[in-house]
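User: quick one, sequence for these tokens?
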């Protein structure tokens, strides 16, 4: 019986160790993908305290965990800007401070939500993230946000 139990534990541990990571090394070494997805997470309603965004779905992200941040800040109930359908974010720069920390500067043309006139507003903002390794990668994905953008912006279809 002891031999059977030991064999069962060994096989269970071996199969667990052999499971492929949800976030494989080749995905996590793709800095452009991670940067794009960190910005997209913001546009999908990661910090938005106004509800659950229909865009915040894990199937849209390969390198990061798409979960809602717990927000208590009332100013995040309404986004400052909406990114209209068909408009994209432009990544201006991606600077690695150390191997695990990256600062991303990006720009977009947004609109104030609920405004009667479609007034375009050029906005430049930045965020920073750290790369995750080991067990942290399996739980949080290839990267985690360190510093959030100054402005809250959502894609029009996510609001």
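Assistant:
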């Amino acid at each position: 019986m002891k031999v059977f139990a030991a064999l069962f534990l060994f096989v269970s541990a071996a199969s667990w160790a052999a499971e492929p990571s949800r976030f494989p090394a080749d995905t996590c070494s793709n800095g452009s993908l991670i940067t794009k997805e960190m910005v997209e997470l913001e546009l999908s309603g990661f910090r938005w305290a106004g509800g659950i965004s229909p865009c915040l779905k894990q199937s849209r992200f390969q390198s990061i965990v798409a979960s809602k941040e717990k927000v208590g800040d009332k100013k995040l109930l309404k986004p400052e800007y909406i990114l209209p359908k068909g408009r994209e974010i432009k990544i201006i720069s991606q600077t690695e401070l150390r191997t695990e920390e990256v600062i991303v500067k990006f720009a977009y043309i947004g609109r104030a939500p609920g405004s009667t006139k479609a007034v375009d507003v050029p906005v430049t903002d930045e965020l920073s993230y750290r790369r995750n390794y080991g067990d942290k990668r399996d739980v949080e994905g290839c990267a985690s946000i360190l510093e959030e953008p100054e402005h809250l912006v959502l894609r029009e279809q996510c609001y």
